[in-house]
Design a protein that fits this description.
single chain, 180 residues, mainly beta, four-stranded antiparallel sheet
Length: 180
């Protein structure tokens, strides 16, 4: 559970090179982890209209508006996170060897065609990767080798990048080949 100012949107989560953008209402960062029973408690919360964001790597996040006053307790009740879409794939070298230790990138594309940075991960020893909890929409998925530049994902090379459409609750499988 994360606390944000009332004007925050999930676009603020994706800053340049993967960092978070600043909170538009300058609300101090605060978070809590739910227990096994799903309950959580945040103490000494900033007094204002706030958005509480519930997140989990495998599900779509949800937000709800609460008004906090100094010394008050707010019960937000119960809520349920919805399944997001996922992308599973494998990165390979041109000769078919796994792209072990390489990097996979997923970038959500906007209506204008511009994408904002979303997530990246290291490929396992078999060249596999999986991104979960994705909103429905168009994405660009790329891979680069461990020997390549960290900025390789900015350069589209045939086979190392695919444009896909992800639907909530569904998985898209991709096979990508990095240039050697």
């Amino acid at each position: 559970i994360n606390i944000h100012g009332k004007d925050w949107s999930d676009n603020n989560s994706f800053g340049l090179f993967g960092g978070s953008g600043p909170d538009p209402n300058n609300v101090p960062a605060q978070s809590a982890v739910t227990g096994k029973d799903g309950k959580f408690k945040l103490e000494n919360v900033f007094s204002a209209e706030l958005l509480l964001e519930a997140t989990h790597p495998s599900f779509l996040s949800t937000t709800f508006l609460v008004t906090m006053h100094t010394g008050s307790n707010v019960d937000v009740g119960s809520f349920k996170l919805e399944s997001g879409g996922s992308v599973t794939g494998i990165g390979l070298y041109g000769d078919g060897r796994p792209l072990a230790g390489g990097t996979a990138y997923v970038t959500r594309q906007t209506d204008s065609g511009f994408g904002y940075f979303s997530d990246n991960m290291r490929l396992d020893s078999r060249g596999r990767f999986q991104f979960e909890g994705l909103k429905s929409g168009s994405y660009k998925v790329s891979v680069s080798s461990a020997e390549g530049s960290g900025m390789m994902f900015l350069i589209e090379v045939d086979g190392s990048t695919k444009n896909i459409y992800v639907q909530a609750g569904r998985n898209v499988e991709v096979e990508l080949t990095a240039q050697q």
